[in-house]
TrEMBL record:
Domain of life: Bacteria
Protein's job: One of the primary rRNA binding proteins, it binds specifically to the 5'-end of 16S ribosomal RNA.
Gene that specifies this protein: rpsQ
Residues forming coiled coils: none
Name assigned to this protein: Small ribosomal subunit protein uS17
Length: 82
């Protein structure tokens, strides 16, 4: 089975070893054709607490780590300047 990977933006880093990553999906409306933006938020495991709000990260699906956490950070793509 293929490993699911996504690229998203860190929107919250208030928890220990966990960040919230928002992923935008842009798709045309089936009837009207307007581009509709859907945002999905994932709780992601951040072992070293390295991510800050505004960072662009790549995440990968993993085994369940808690009740709501099923993703982990594989790499930080862009770090937001402080």
């Amino acid at each position: 089975m293929a490993v699911k990977e996504r690229v998203g933006l860190v929107v919250s880093d208030k928890m220990q070893k966990t960040v919230v990553v928002a992923i935008e999906n842009r798709a045309p409306h089936p009837k009207y054709g307007k581009i509709v933006v859907n945002t999905q938020r994932y709780k992601v495991h951040d072992e070293e607490n390295q991510c800050k709000v505004g960072d662009r990260v790549r995440i990968q699906e993993t085994r369940p780590l808690s009740k709501t956490k099923r993703w982990k950070i594989t790499e930080v793509l862009n770090v937001k300047p402080a």
